Amino acid sequence: MPTPTLPNRLFLSLLSLLALYTAYYIGTLRPTPLPHAPEYASTHPNAARIPFYVPPSLIPSSPLPPSSSLPPCPDLALNTSAFPKPEKGNLVPPLVHTIYHLSGDHPPELPYFHYLALRSVLLSLRPKHMLLHHHHASAPHGPYWDLLAPHITLSPLTPPQEVYGHPLAHFAHKADVLRLQLLIAYGGVYVDIDTYVLRSFDRAGLYTQDVVLGMEMSPDSRRTSLEPGGLCNAVIVARSDAPFLKRWLKSYETFDGSVWAGHSVAKSWELALLHPRELTVLSHRAMFYPLWREEDIDWVHKPSKAGAEGGWEFFKSGQLTYHAWESLAMQYLGPMTPSSVLKGETSFTRMARAFVGPEDGAVEKLLKEREGRGG
Questions:
Q1: For every residue of 40-107, which 3-state class applies, written as one string?
Q2: Are 246 and 278 in contact (CB under 8 A)?
Q3: Which of 93, 100, 101, 314 could form a disulfide bond with 138, CB atoms 3.0-4.6 angstroms apart?
Q4: CATH no. for residue 95?
Q5: What does the alpha-carbon distance between residue 360 and residue 48 come to, in Å, rounded to a whole number?
Q6: In angstroms, rounded to a whole number, what is the distance separating the alpha carbons of residues 9 and 236?
């Protein structure tokens, strides 16, 4: 093969140098930044490629309703300055609220299933202070209440009769508004009187959050577990003055008493979708499972064997509470006694017997004797 001449060698050398320079140049190319890119654009990894980008953190949320625009909490006939403050590392104080009999008439004696639910709160949450708010003319009474009285402070009050001009005709709607007013004013834990608390909220970390609510599963089987019927207000954990609760109470401007759970369950979920940073949402298995459907209530209360497929094991599930849906399950709850709980073989009795007290049997005997005497 003939040796390349000098001009040819020079040409090949220049060609090689050109190839090397081109490769180096291409390797150092970078996207040209947008001219006059705002400072905040550099905080997003791809912001420089998107003209006029505004990060979500800079978009203001809707303003909070001023406290003066909210219906005030009823006056409490208690020394509220003595209410406990949040403990170190927590936002929520160890203060429990429940509501009983807001109708103003003379209530029957406290039934055993309410007694067990209240006792479950005392045993599982170990609150520094527990308040039972009631109509000033409707205090709880009866031998089961007498067992609880040393541990729960009665809070007589006048319940709200209207909200933003809308009448609150049903006691349940009065209670829906009252619980929000109490938690905004004092913070703590609200539980319905038919709610069984199975685990410590403090150990679960709930007291470190602004607001905690649990999903209520939709009865519509076409919806996923992340499409609940709403966030049930039977259990609310909240710090005082929580923004989410203020929005929730303010939403009662559109209250319609003919819609049963419109503001107590559905509205809270709507607000959570709009303001997800203002609360902590727990799944439908945390607090309100099994649901209130007839088949679910039967499942909980019909006989079943422990650990077998036919029932539900509350403590093994790890859930925090069970709402007993008393308005729909009264056929099972009403006749309940210490004996039926201790001897029963249902999902409910296996759970509830953990909260039977040492004096319950004596009270049951006393009530039977009284009934035998016709009194």
A1: HHHHCCCHHHCCCCCCHHHCCCCCCCCHHHCCCCCCCCCCHHHCCCCCCCCCCCCEEEEEECCCCCCC
A2: no
A3: 101
A4: 3.90.550.20
A5: 70
A6: 86
State the helix-helix crossing angle for 243-250 and 267-274, rounded to 10 degrees: 130
Contact 249, 71 (CB under 8 A): yes
Same domain membership, residue 302 and residue 244: no
Same-domain check for residues 260 and 301: no
Q: Encoding tokens for residue 10?
A: 């020079």
| 114 in any annotated domain | yes
Mark which of 248, 282, 316 sits at the end of a domain. Answer: 282
For residue 251, what is the DSSP state? G
Instruction: Give the pair of three-digit tokens for residue 236.
Output: 């609310």
- What is the structure's pLDDT at 18? 65
230 within some domain: yes
Q: For all residues of the chain together, what is the average pLDDT?
A: 89
The domain containing residue 221 runs over which residues?
79-282
Asked whether residue 7 is domain-assigned, the answer is no
How would DSSP label each residue in 131-157?
EEEEETT----SHHHHHHGGGSEEEEE
Half-sphere exposure (Cβ direction) of 316: Cα atoms closer than 13 Å: 8
Q: What is the pTM of this model?
A: 0.84
**pLDDT of 175-213, one tens digit each?**
999 999 999 999 999 999 999 999 999 999 999 999 999
Same domain, 206 and 231: yes
Task: For residue 347, count CB atoms less than 10 angstroms from its CB and return exposed for 0-12, middle for 13-18, buried for 19 or more.
Answer: buried
pLDDT of residue 4: 55
Residue partners of 316: CB distance under 8 A and separation at least 6: none
Residue 48 CB-half CA count within 13 A: 9
- What pLDDT does residue 68 have? 87
